[in-house]
Every structure is written in C-alpha cells, then in structure tokens.
Design brief:
By secondary structure, the chain is an alpha+beta fold. Helices cover about 25% and strands about 45% of the residues. Strands 5, 6, 7, 10, 11, 12, 13 and 15 form an eight-stranded antiparallel sheet that branches. The protein starts with a helix and ends with a strand.
C-alpha cells in the first residue's frame, strides 16, 4: 500500500473534453477575384482560337499546295522525217521535220509557253545543226498540243572532224540526233498565276536509219520521251 507521501507526489488528474481532441479544419482558400477569373477565361479562349486558326490556315495552305502545285509538262517526239544528208566539203544539208506532243498533266492549271526555241544537234558531237522558234503556246488544263518544227539545215559548216564522223555514222546505216527545247512557262488558274519559270527539255536518241545514201531516213524510235526540267528564273 502506497504511503501518504507517494500519493501526494502524483500529479492531479484533470478532465479531458471531446472538443479538445480535434482541431478546427484549415480555412478554405479565398475565391479568385472576379477580374482575375475574367482575365484567365479570356486568355484560355484566345489561346483556343489561335490554335484553331493556326490549324485551319496550315490545312488550307497544304490543300492549296496540293491542288495548285504544278506538275512538269510531258514532251514526246511522236514522228520525224529526214531527207538524205548531202555534203559539200565539210558542210552538210538535209531536210528534217519533227512532230512533238506537249502535254499539260495539271487538272487545275493552264499553261503558257513563251519564247520557245527548238534546236537540233548532232548527238555524238553535240554540234548544233538548226534552230526553230515556236510561236507562243497556250494550253488548257489537262490537254495536249501538237508542235510541228522544221529543223532542216542547209550548208551548215561542221568542220572536218564532225563532218567525217557524221559520214561514218551514215555509212553504218544510222544517224543519232538530239533535240533540245527551251521556253519560259507560266501556270494559271483564273486570275491566279505562278511566276515565270524556265523550262528545258532534252530528247536524246532521236535516231534515223539509212539504207542508202540516196533514200530518206527512217525514224527508229517514235514516241521518244523527253526529259523535262523546270527551274526558277
């Protein structure tokens, strides 16, 4: 049994009430001021419309590029004729007529060709023989145009080496020529048009077979496809 002194040393007991076991919850944050809310809402709406506008503009530009981006014209040598080639010393002469088909493959763009120049070259030496200037050509959308070029040459001085090489080709029964085309081209859709571009086309391997020196040449590769290039001025 505890002594009276030990009982006196024990701390007195105090009653504990229920409301002392809990703390008041943290105060709720004060609501945003109406002006701050309006500014935040305006910013969000502006950002949304800017994003939508950017997406619409980008889609529109891509669509316009797909529709109006011009495809290269197509050019083919469909027929050709050549008379026997005659020589006077180092000069050569022959009648030569070429038929080309120019195709505009664009479904949404018309094309116009200015200052078109068609040249005939002796293929193995790349020596120019004749030149033909084609009047202005205007093509509708997705259409074809036939071009007739008179590339005859008369008394063109080739020099001894080139004349000798051409005679050897004729003696072997064939003569290879190259056609080059240069033009300034524009594409148009209504009032909208592209800036002017240069067009260069190369038609290699235009060959004629000769069975004798007195008979006309036979065009060996009809529908010869040309290589077409476009580049900015």
């Amino acid at each position: 049994m505890a002594s009276p002194a030990a009982v006196r040393d024990v701390a007195p007991l105090h009653p504990v009430y229920l409301h002392q076991l809990y703390r008041d919850p943290a105060p709720e944050p004060e609501p945003l001021l109406p002006s701050v809310r309006r500014e935040l809402l305006f910013f969000c709406r502006t950002l949304k419309w800017c994003i939508l506008g950017f997406i619409f503009l980008a889609s529109f530009l891509v669509l316009m590029w797909i529709i109006f981006h011009p495809s290269f014209p197509l050019l083919n040598v469909v027929s050709a004729s050549m008379s026997p080639v005659s020589f006077t010393a180092t000069a050569a002469s022959a009648d030569c007529n070429i038929t080309l088909v120019l195709t505009n493959p664009n479904h949404h763009l018309a094309a116009s060709y200015d200052r078109m120049e068609i040249s005939l070259l002796y293929a193995s030496q790349q020596v120019p023989l004749s030149k033909f200037h084609q009047p202005r050509v205007v093509q509708r959308k997705h259409s074809q145009t036939t071009l007739q070029a008179n590339l005859s040459f008369f008394g063109i001085d080739l020099g001894g080496g080139v004349a000798s090489a051409m005679k050897q080709d004729l003696d072997r029964g064939s003569l290879g020529l190259t056609i080059k085309i240069f033009s300034v081209i524009k594409f148009r859709n209504g009032k909208w048009k592209t800036k002017s571009r240069y067009m260069r086309a190369y038609c290699p391997g235009v060959s004629f077979g000769f069975v004798s020196s007195t008979r006309s040449g036979i065009f060996l590769n009809p529908y010869q496809e040309c290589q077409v290039y476009l580049y900015s001025k």
